[in-house]
Amino acid sequence: MVKASRIMNFEDHVIYEFLIDMFLKQFNITREHLLNYKYQTTIPYKKSHISVQQSITNLVPNILIEFVSEYGNQRIVSIYALERKGDSRTLVTLTEEGFSDKKALDLNYKLFSFPVLNFSTKKKLKTRLYQINQLLSSKESGGNV
């Protein structure tokens, strides 16, 4: 499992609603259909594209959003965890963990969760949290998101 955290100067409910809205726009659905909705998409991989199924598998209002991406026999679980740290401050922790039915791929996911080997994944998670914070700041100052 790889984890990154960031303190954001927003209430937990503001961040939670922003993340929910982000998924609603991506999946192009309404809130009542969000939990366990299966969204099909393709992502670039090497010189082609692979089919990916994505879904929100767990929602705890203002506390947690669990997001799963599946392709073939591989599964990536991403969790946004929100923890209030006082007035208008929230610790946002993003974790990712990979799984596979194939032993070699599963071992690869486990190896890359070691601190020495997870630098690029951790950097990606930190960048994602930074982007979320920037989008929220832009939205708060009247910008479009």
The residue ranges in which pLDDT falls below 50 over 5 or more consecutive positions are none
Q: Which class best fits the helix and strand makeup? A: alpha+beta
Radius of gyration: 16 Å
Total DSSP E strands: 6
Distance between the termini: 30 Å
Question: In total, how many domains does the architecture comprise?
Answer: 1
Mean pLDDT: 87
* Strand arrangement in the largest pleated sheet: 1-6-5-4-3-2
CATH architecture: 2-Layer Sandwich
Helix content: 25-40%
Q: What coarse outline follows from CA principal-axis ratios?
A: globular
Number of helices: 3
Taken in chain order, the helices and strands follow as EHEEEEEHH
**CATH domain fold name:** Alpha-D-Glucose-1,6-Bisphosphate, Chain A, domain 4
Folded structure, characterized:
This protein has a 6-stranded antiparallel sheet. The two termini are 30 Å apart. It has a single domain (2-140), classed as Alpha-D-Glucose-1,6-Bisphosphate, Chain A, domain 4 (2-Layer Sandwich), CATH 3.30.530.20. It has 3 helices and 6 strands; from the N terminus they run E-H-E-E-E-E-E-H-H. It is of the alpha+beta class and 145 residues long. It is globular, with a radius of gyration of 16 Å. The model has no long low-confidence stretch (mean pLDDT 87).
